[in-house]
Amino acid sequence: MERKKKGGVKVIFNIQKCSIHDGEGLRTLVFFKGCPLKCKWCANPESQNYDEEIMESPVRCVGCGACRDACPKGAILEDGSIDRTLCDNCMKCIDVCYAEAKKITGRAYTTEELYKEIEKDRPFYSRFGGGVTFSGGEPLTHGQQLRDIAEMCHEKGIHVVVESCGYGDFEKFKMALPYIDAMFMDIKHIDTAVHKELTGAGNALILNNIKKISEYGIPLTIRTPIVPGLTDREENITGIAKFVAELPTAKEYELLAYHSFGESKYKALGRKYSLEGTETPSDKKMRELVKAGNRILSEYGKQCCWTKNNNKEVVK
After folding, report:
1. Deepest of 222, 223, 246, 307, by most Cβ within 10 A of its Cβ?
2. Is the same domain home to 161 and 192?
3. d(CA 215, CA 203)
4. Whose CA is closest to 18, among 113, 133, 114, 107?
5. Structural domain containing residue 101
6. How confident is residue 232, by pLDDT bands cut at 50, 70 and 90?
7. Last residue of a domain, one of 88, 105, 122
8. What PROSITE patterns does the database record attribute to this sequence (predicted)?
């Protein structure tokens, strides 16, 4: 089966319906594939590479051996799993796996095809409010494609939000900014050396992009994932809060409690999860950090918060 990337939007790895956490109202979440960062806690490891990949589900394997016979590289082991050092992603095993123990993650859409998927949810937007949220991966690294789909949604009256790690070339994504109504942007750590250790890149470009986007006038929510032992020190939160305080369009700083929901995906991709055994931070810890953030932000008319059971908590 021949697979060719199409023009317009690049590879998308998921379209999620009826989200309530990534913008106002009911949202359609569109996940771009590909990210320049490699965060240790990434819950969507299938989002990191820009190309299609194979994900495995051993419990579905019936042991028929068809994938082993089809693989030209001899990359399929006796138990049906893939030796990733040999695999070149030719996808021939996918074509013969009727049990769907091996699936492709990622699909190329044209702008028109993607808009049709988003348009299906317009009745929900009309009734409950909401719109589309472009996430990833990192949508800002798909500058032209993000601009094309955001413009189409904007012109059709669909509210557009972008979730971003902020790591991208401003000159290549600024064309999309006129069609974006709001953004959620991450700052993982205020110390650039620690940021590089945790994500593979420093934070200077990210902080600079956030400043430029705020100066452009787009409403921002800044987020930090709270990962025990990595990002959960009070000085990290207060340092980021001081940065948020100076952003003209940022009114809220949201802390996100770490979870391990994506751990099984690493195994499905043949990768090791480096944070195995890491626990979700306690409610007490989250409230302490929110309170620390608000000690900085309250005097600027801004707030730090976190969400538990769909309820936003602000601890002064």
Report:
1. 222
2. yes
3. 18
4. 133
5. 53-105
6. very high
7. 105
8. 4FE4S_FER_1, 4FE4S_FER_2, RADICAL_ACTIVATING, RADICAL_SAM
